[in-house]
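Question: Now follow the chain.
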Amino acid sequence: MAATAPLLHHSIVKIAGTSSLAFSDGWHYNFSRPHLLSQAQNVEQMAHLQQVGEREMRRITLNAWTASGDSLRQWGRLYEDGMGEKVYLAWIADASGLRYNIMKKRGVSLKSPQHNTDPEHGNFVEKAGGVEALVGAVFEDCGRNDEMTSEVMRRLGVYWPVSAAESQQLKKYLTKLRSMRIITG
């Protein structure tokens, strides 16, 4: 198991070969079942993995919040009105390169102009679903291992802070996104 990811807001992610995720911090996740990565890449095939990922991101983050002893207000501010929002996940899909480096629709990369429903933002539901599907694919592939799934989630910018410094950094990042009107909560 690799050490906890250095806390950047997110890493850039790309596919290395046919069965590995490569993150900009040098960390890799290698799929033992590459068909799960393929399924997570394809908008038309990701529905099940998207549901798994959405559920597991919430559950893993909720478990970390419970263990931290932080307030319900803190949970609401950081997760419910922040990282758990579809618009946040869509932002992460763009910022991490997931949309352009991994996701496909009808076999064509989402970087293709034909897939942009809005020149600036594209389809935020599909992009958020891509983040969720990727997390779901990792969760299923690694034998439902929360620790490994958390490593990928951290690199995608969905995590519960484990220290006061991380908490301040995350709050600052979410405040910046709120000021930019990326997230509204």
Summary: Helices lie at 34-41, 47-68, 72-83, 86-95, 98-101, 124-141, 146-155, 164-179. Residues 13-179 form a domain with the Ribonuclease iii, N-terminal Endonuclease Domain; Chain A fold (CATH 1.10.1520.10). Residues 47-68 form the longest helix (22 residues). The chain has one domain: 13-179.
